[in-house]
Amino acid sequence: MKKVSIITVNFNQPKVTEELLQSIFTKSKYPGLEIIVVDNGSEHDPTAEWGTLYATVKFIRSATNLGFAGGNNLGIRAATGDYLFLVNNDTEFTEGLVEQLVNTLDEHSEAGMVSPKIRYFDKPDVLQYAGYTKMNYFTARNNCVGQFETDMGQYDQLTGETAFGHGAAMMVRREAMEKAGMMSEIYFLYYEEMDWCEHIRKAGYTIRVNMQALIYHKESVSVGRNSPLKEFFMNRNRILFIRRNCPLGVRMVFWPYILFVVTPRNMLNYMKNGQWGFIPILIKAITWNFTNSIQSTNLGYPVKR
After folding, report:
1. Where are the chain's structural domains?
2. What's the rounded Cα separation, in Å, for the pair 303 and 305?
3. Other C-beta atoms lying within 10 Å of the C-beta of residue 222
4. CA torsion 206→210→215→219, rounded to 10°?
5. In whole angstroms, what separates CA 84 from the centre of its chain?
6. Mean pLDDT score of the chain, rounded to an integer?
7. Contact (CB, 8 A) for 137 and 246
8. Which residues contact 106 (CB under 8 A, 6 or more apart)?
9. CA angle at residue 254 from 252 to 258, to 5 degrees?
10. What is the signed CA dihedral for 181, 75, 217, 151, rounded to 10 degrees?
């Protein structure tokens, strides 16, 4: 039986993380789980208190916020499992979740990663993820299958290969991770899991979705207005993703699309919505990609570390 390491990252959400741990303890019957919680530079260090409450859990503290990839990579380095199950701390487990994902990797030796079906926690019949469509690399656009639809089992037959796993819940084969490398920390927020999927595929593995496995995600169905931080990293990293993963011919089509279609359209939307402050943020995100290499450690935006 394969050993599974569950890895999650906490940043100023101790109650949410504790709810995840309780769901793992009550819903998962998989034997010998290794559970690792990384506190990613929270203002208050909860690890000492947690150590007395959850004696079987391994807690790791980073003094600074390492971002999504950095926090998970810290957990990966400490993990000993054959399969690494990375989950957002705002998820909750269901019965059979781990077993189903393990079965997928056991039965499909070519699979490097598998994600479960994801539903919204606050609307438990509504889908968030049933796989991803293939990306159009000329525009860096694709779709999340089933998002915001009531789950009537309409996508259950899609169990199999998918274009990308979902960052909220992805089980990775250690061998695939070792060949592809860990998640790139240069993204800090957004696109790092898609980049990881690209590298796992290039290492010779497939990405799968198991629609018989279910996890709930506490991300709200009603997405609010974007923050300046999100707007910067979504735009910066969309371009960075293409720069890192696509050949010159694709990039030569992508850049005019970004500069002469996306940028004017976004600016018009900002003005229409009274979000004038987002215009310099968009320009900053684009400029970063002209002035920084694809290995740059310069985030380009002040973040709480």
Report:
1. 4-217, 228-291
2. 6
3. 8
4. 50
5. 14
6. 95
7. yes
8. 2
9. 125
10. 40
Backbone φ, ψ for residue 109 (5° rounding): -65, -20
User: Which residues is 120 bridged to in the sheet?
Assistant: 217
Contact in structure between 125 and 245 (CB atoms under 8 Å): no
| Nearest-angstrom CA–CA distance, 132 and 161 | 10
Q: Which two tokens stand for residue 182?
A: 């860990």
Residue type, 5: S
The CATH class for the domain spanning 4-217 reads alpha beta
Instruction: Please give the backbone phi and psi of residue 255, each rounded to the nearest 5 degrees, phi first.
Output: -60, -50
User: Residues near 296 by Cβ (< 8 Å), separated by ≥ 6?
Assistant: 186
CA 239, CA 242: separation in Å to the nearest integer? 5
Helix, strand or coil, per DSSP, at residue 129: strand
DSSP secondary structure string for all residues of 175-188? HHHHHH-S--TTSS
pLDDT in tens, 8-51: 999 999 999 999 999 999 999 999 899 999 999 999 999 999 99
Return the ∠ at Cα 114 (arms to 2 and 226), rounded to 5°: 135
Residue 248 CA to residue 300 CA, distance in Å, equals: 24
Is the Cβ–Cβ distance between 191 and 238 less than 8 Å? yes
pTM of the model: 0.94
Contact 86, 98 (CB under 8 A): no
Tell me the C-alpha distance between 131 and 293, whole Å: 31
Give Cα 287 distance to the centre of its chain.
25
> Closest Cα to residue 239, out of 189, 200, 294?
294
CA–CA dist 61, 15 (Å, integer):
17
The dihedral over CA atoms of 252, 255, 257, 262, expressed in degrees to the nearest 10, equals 170
The whole-number pLDDT of residue 222 equals 40
Tell the burial category of 67 from Cβ atoms under 10 Å away from its Cβ (0-12, 13-18, 19+). buried
Q: Where are the alpha helices (DSSP H) in 133-277?
A: 174-180, 192-202, 228-245, 248-257, 263-272
